[in-house]
Amino acid sequence: MPGTGKTATILRAVAALQEDLGPFQFVNINGARFDDPFNVYTELLSALTNKTEKPNKALQLLNARFSQNESPAAGGPKKKKTKGEEGTASSSEDGKKQPFVVVLVDELDYLSCPKQTVIYNLLDWPTRSASHLLVIGVSNTMNLPERLGSKIQSRIVTRISFKPYNKSQVEKIVLARLSEKDVGGVFEPDAITMAAAKVAAYSGDIRRALKLCATAAEIRMDSNGMRDHDHDQSSAVQARVTVKDVQKADRDLHDSTVIEALRMTSTAEALIVCAVAAEVRVQGTEGCDLDKIQIRIRGQANRLQADGHKEYFAPSHAEVIEICDRLQEAGVLRIDFQGKHRMPRLYLCVPDNAVAEALSGGPVKRFIPQNYSDWGYHQN
Question: What's the family (predicted)?
């Protein structure tokens, strides 16, 4: 789940450790920056040694640095070490002991490749006795370790799940951020509470909460003709952001981002959105389990095929998970992975009428009832 403080928490912890334990080498890498996952080798080597090499050469040098009398990294060339290469993992070129290194790999899932050798190497190197290396991977992808296979799972020492912020937490963080900027008095208390409630209900993404507050402030300034003009403290008090400003900002954000994302969905994505909306209505709950959605999707796909749309097939379990990840990134769904032995739970982040409006022009419109309160009509 994005916006739950994963990266910020790690950076804060690293800073505290450097203050308490003394300096160590810290490397921050974002996997989303690379067109080719193998380029992460070049980036990591450059950060550690100030040397720039092509990925294959960088892999060899990194494997030599982190390994001593060990087999080569996966996906790398297998060759015998020549005289003088022994001991390069724990010693630098001048014979000094290598410093401890902490590597943060944000957006780890972007480094996926057919044989998953990149992610495997990154997580395998810390297991080498001479590596002096700790790798922290961050990902928004639902149950990523299970999807990578047992070989990579065996290299994961600790796994921490960050749950979405609840209303109280969102409100507390927003108040703290506003106080830091010395603009806390610009918002009415109820307006901040409303912003926190809306974000917690949809996603718990603190970045969205801050964006919502910023948009609400812009709306209030525009309505008072204060944009780009100097104003004194009394006018600022008169221009305090209200609950109505937050509500309008929330509608505007949905209209400009999430609704557009809904309109751009594929048929398979649209089927999942309709299935979640219908299941939530039928069950009378805020969220629904993934297995219920898969049953409903199969029924929807069968109905489309019966109507002559032979090209539509129900997506597989793996495809459904990938689609849900994309919909979560777009702000349409929120995924709560409840544990290794329980099905993920899905939450719709947009109102029913917005779903109906955005998807009414496609082949899935038959699964959108005219009466929004009757989402269970097409249950199969």
Answer: Belongs to the ORC1 family.
Q: Which residues contact 134 (CB under 8 A, 6 or more apart)?
A: 100, 101, 102, 103, 126
On whether the CB atoms of residues 196 and 163 are closer than 8 A, the answer is no
HSE on the CB side for 238, CA within 13 Å?
A: 9
Domain ranges, ordered by start, for the chain:
6-68+99-154, 167-224+237-254, 259-367
Fold of 259-367: Arc Repressor Mutant, subunit A (1.10.10)
CA-CA distance, 356 to 348, in Å (whole number)? 13
27 forms bridges with which residues in the sheet?
A: 103
Could you list the mean pLDDT of each consecutive 10-residue stretch along the chain, which spans 380 residues? 82 90 88 86 94 94 79 49 38 61 90 86 90 90 75 85 88 90 84 90 81 90 65 53 91 72 82 85 80 86 77 81 85 73 76 72 61 38
Neighbours of 189 (CB within 10 A): 12
Q: What pTM does this model have?
A: 0.61
CATH architecture of the region 167-224+237-254? Orthogonal Bundle (1.10)
Q: Are 154 and 188 in contact (CB under 8 A)?
A: no
